[in-house]
Amino acid sequence: METASYASLRGHERSRRIASASGSAPTSIAATLLTLLFDGIAYGMLLFVLAVGLAVTLGLMNFINLAHGAFAMAGGYITVLLMNRAGVPFVACLPLAFIGTALLGALLERTLYRPMYARPHLDQVLFSIGLVFMAVTAVDYVVGSMQQNITLPPWLQGRLPIEAVGIGKYRLFIIVICSALTVLLQWVLSRTRFGSRLRAAVDDPRVAGGLGLDVNRIFLLTFAVGSGLAGLGGALGAEVLGLDPTFPLKFMIYFLIVVSVGGTTTITGPLVAALLLGIADVAGKYYVPTLGAFIVYCLMIAILTLRPQGLFARAGSR
Amino acid sequence: MTGSDEALSPAARSLLRAGRWRWWELALFAALPLAWLLLPRQSLLINEIAIVALFAVSLDLILGYAGIVSLGHAAFFGFGAYAAAIFAKDTLADPLVGLAVAIGASALLGAATSLLILRGTDLTRLMVTLGVASVLYELANKLDTLTGGADGLRGVVMGPLVTPFGAFEFDLSGRVGCAYSLAVLAVALLVARRIVHSPFGISLQALRDNRLRAASIGLAVRRRLVAVYTIAAAVAGAAGALLAQTSGFASLDVFDFHRSAEVLLVLVIGGTGYLYGGVFGAIVFQLLHDVVSAWTPQYWNFWLGLFLVVLVLVGRERFVRPWTWFRRGRR
C-alpha cells in the first residue's frame, strides 16, 4: 500500500531530468520554448508508442487492460538486464525488448486474456489490476525495488552542436524511431491486407468471423504487437521516464489518458493526444513545478466531461 | 397486513417481499455488538473491518445498485478523512460533529463530481473517477499548510465521544473507537437498506440493468444517478472520517489508488448488489490481509493480485460455491 502512488508522478525529478538532459540552459525565451516543445514532442512520441497497443486492445476488443504498463516495464527490464548483466549493446537490446515482450504478450493473451474479452468491464478491471499488482511485486522480488539506470552509448549522449536550441541527441533518436514506427503502423493499418482484416474485425468481429477471417488469430497477433510496442517504448523510455517496479502504476493513468482522450477508433487520435499530453506535461512541470501533474488531470477530466468519447472519436463508435 | 397484500399486484407483492427482513440480516446486525462484547482484544482489527465494510457498502450503492464502475472511490474516503482531521484540529474536537462535517463535505464533493460521470462509457467513467482521486491526491500533497503534505496530518486529538450514556475518551486499545465505528456502520446499513428497498432504490436497479429502457419509461436517470452518487460519497466520507478519528491521523495514503482498488476487491469478494457484500468482503479481506501480511509483509500485494486474477478467471459465483467446481454443466 505504501509502495506505489500517484505521487510518484511528482514532476520534480522528472522535469529536472527532462530539462537538464537537453543540455545547458539555453539563453533566450524563444530558445527555451523551442527546447520545451522539442522535449515535449519526444516525450509525447514515447507515450504514443507506449500506449498505442492499449488503444488497439481497447478499440478492437473493447477490453480495459490496466496492465498495459506491465508490458512496458517488461521491455524496460529486459533492456536493463541485458545491458548491465550480459553486456549487450543498447541498440541491439531494443529489438530484443520488442520480441521478448511480444512473446510474453502472446502467451498471456492465449492463456489469460482471451477468456476475459466477453466479460463485463468490472471483471476486466479487477483482472488487470491483479496482474499489475503481481507484476510490480514480482519484479520487486526478483530485481529489487531500486531505480534502474542504463548507460547510453556515447553517440547518443549530449546534445547536437546547435547553439540556440538545446536538442538532446537521445531525444532526437526517440523522435526518429517513434515517427518511423508511427508511419509504419499507419501504413500497415491502412494499406496492407492484415490492416484491412484488422479493421474489419474492429468494426464487427462476428461478421468478420463469418466471412472466414480467423478473428482469434488477428486478436492474438495484434495483442502481441501492441505489447511488443509497449516493451519497446519501455526500453526507449527507461532513461527518460525512470524505471522501477512501480512503473506500471505510475504511468497507468498516462496511458489511459492517451487512449481515452485520443479515442480508440483511429491511430491519429492517440498520437495527437500523446503529443498534447507530452508537451503539456513537460511545459507544465517546467513553468509551474509546484502543481505537478495537477493540470494534466484537470485537463483530462474537462476533456472527458465535454467529449466523453475522446477528442477524435467517430460518431456512433463504441 | 395480509389483507392489504391481497389487493396488490404480483409485482408489488414481490417488491414488498424483497424488502422484508431476513433472519440472516437480523443475525448480522446482532453480530455487530456481539463482536465488540466477545472479542475485546481484537478491537483494533474489528474497527478496521468496520471502516472498510462501510467504505465497501458505499461503493456497492453506486456499483451494485447503479452500475457505475469507479476506480477513484477513495476520493470521497480521503476527503472525509481529511475533512474530519482538519476540523478536529482547527475547529472542534467533538467526534460526532466532525463526522457530520465530513459527511457533509464529502456529499458536496460527490454532488459536484457526479456531474462528471453522467456521460460516456465505462472507460470514460473509470478515467474521470480515477482523475478526480488523482487531483485530490495532488491537492492534498501540495497544500501542505492545510494537510501536512506528504508527511500527513499528525497530532489530531479527538475530544470525548458524548453519548446519552456518558462521555467516552478514545483509548489506545481501541474499545471506544471500535464501538463508535460499529455503531456508525449499523446506522449506515439501516439507512442504506431503507434506501435500496425504497422505490428510488428499485428504480436505480432498473436503470443499472437498462438505462435506455429506464429512461423511456419516464425515470429521471440523471437525477437519480446524481442522488445515489452523492449518497455513496457521503457514506464513503463517513468511513474516511472514522479512520481519521479513530487513528488520529490522516495521510496521503487515504487517496491512494490502492484504496480504490482494494475496496473494489473487498466488494467483489463479498458480492455486489445486495448491500451486505461489503461487510462480508471486509471480514474476509482483513483476515486474509492479517494472515498473509504476517507471513510475507513485503509481498502481500503479489498474493492480492493473484487472488484477484484467480477470482475473476474462475468467476466469483463459482468461487464462493466450491461444490460446483467439479460439476460439468452450463458454463
Structural class of chain A: mainly alpha
What is the H/E order of chain B?
HHHHHHHHEEHHHHHHHH
What CATH architecture label of chain A applies? Orthogonal Bundle
Greatest interface by residues involved: A-B, 52 and 51 residues
Q: Strands of the largest sheet of chain B, in order across it?
A: 1-2
Largest sheet of chain A at a glance? none
Question: Rg of chain B from C-alpha positions?
Answer: 20 Å
Q: Let me know the average pLDDT of chain B.
A: 87
Instruction: Give the overall shape of chain B.
Output: globular
Tally of distinct domains of chain A: 1
Roughly how much helix do the residues of chain A carry, as a percent range?
over 70%
- Give start-end ranges of low-pLDDT stretches of chain A: 1-26
From the N-terminal CA to the C-terminal CA of chain A, the straight-line distance is: 34 Å
Question: Which term fits the overall shape of chain A?
Answer: globular
Query: Largest sheet of chain B at a glance?
Result: 2 strands, antiparallel
Question: What do these coordinates show?
Answer:
With 318 residues, chain A is an all-alpha fold. Chain A has a single domain, classed as ABC transporter involved in vitamin B12 uptake, BtuC (Orthogonal Bundle). Helices cover 71% and strands 0% of the residues of chain A. In chain A, helix 2 runs antiparallel to helix 11 (268-287) and helix 4 (90-113) packs across helix 9 (215-241). Chain A is globular and about 60 Å long. Chain B has 331 residues and is an all-alpha fold. Helices cover 70% and strands 2% of the residues of chain B. Chain B is built from 16 helices and two strands. Chains A and B meet through helix 5, helix 10 and helix 12 of A and helix 7, helix 13 and helix 15 of B.
